[in-house]
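Protein modeling request. Please complete all fields; requests missing the sequence field cannot be processed.
Requester role: graduate student
Desired output: 3D structure, token encoding
Chains: 1
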Amino acid sequence: MTTDNACALNLLLVGEKGNLPDGFDRWLGDRQWKICHAPDVGAASAEVSSRHIDAVLVCKPDKPSEELKRFLRHVDALRIAAVVVGGDAAGLGVSDSSLIDTPSPNISKEELSWRLSTLARFQAQARRMERELEHMQKLGKRLNQYFREIDDEMRLASRLQRDFLPREIERIGPLRFRTAFRPASWVSGDIYDIQKLDDQHVGIYIADAIGHGVAAGLLTMFIKHSMITRRETDGKFEIVPPGEALISLNDRLARHRLPNCQFVTGHYCVINTRTLRMQYARGGHPYPLLISGERGVSELKSTGGLMGLFPEFECPTFEMQLHPGDKLILFTDGIESAFEDLDAKRGGAENFHQFVESNAALPLTDIVGKIDSYIDQTTGSLQPEDDVTIVGIEVVERDR
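Delivered output (400 residues):
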């Protein structure tokens, strides 16, 4: 017969051994189990409370006492398996879900041996599961700590990225601005800037690195550093035309040979605040929407491909005249996903165009505010598919 040595058991034997089947005591002595003996239920309760017990074998008197019932309820509450041998088991009140086993009073040595051997094997499995559970709990604590650190780092990265955006700029000369910056996660693949280039020129650009998240967010910092809007020639600063600025940005992106075909789209315009003449260029970016009193809402179209893919890149500079009352809305392509469900018969870009057209008579601040509110009300706005950035420009009447 096997000795079950590999399945060590901490067994508590309660009561007189006289109620055990003949020969069982000798079989038990052949086990290399840790066996402790309690002469009565009171001593057994103390043993269960003071040491680790895997199983209990009760040599029960003829009539179950209240003390025995309380002891068995306590053992069951601790989820310790118990076998009660001898006497009348009907009065113990053992439920079907209990770990208390009440075999026939005439149980044989072989059957009792088999039951305890089974308990020993299950207990070995239970110990392994407990060790695995303890390991998983420790791993869970480490992962929770790791995720807390990652969350803190991402919050910091988000704050740092926002610090690279222009501060609250509401107006420069006759130009009024309103922006919306809505990252899909902690950091965004979008970036924009509004800056005074000299006393009468303002530069505005918006760019979108493919995707969103950390990789795209890091690329926006590269864009910020690489976007050259002014240069020094013979000791004097001159404004870089928009097309040349985007060509220079493309050269720097392509030179670094970014992985995974990482590319960037962008739109850059320079506005003369005195003449309201605007120069602009586009690198694969969605066409801005121009709201004009004469032409209504139209796309400001221009040529120019994606940036960052190839060194050869053509990006001409276009020019147009702005007038008081004109509004220009620059945006990233995340806006198209946000407006996808406005009308199922149209695409997101067309839906957005229609939305702007229906609100075109409002001031710029109200238009961008309505766009922001609409996105907030869409399904899944808390987990957007893409970053959304809007830069609105409105030409107002000059101060008298």
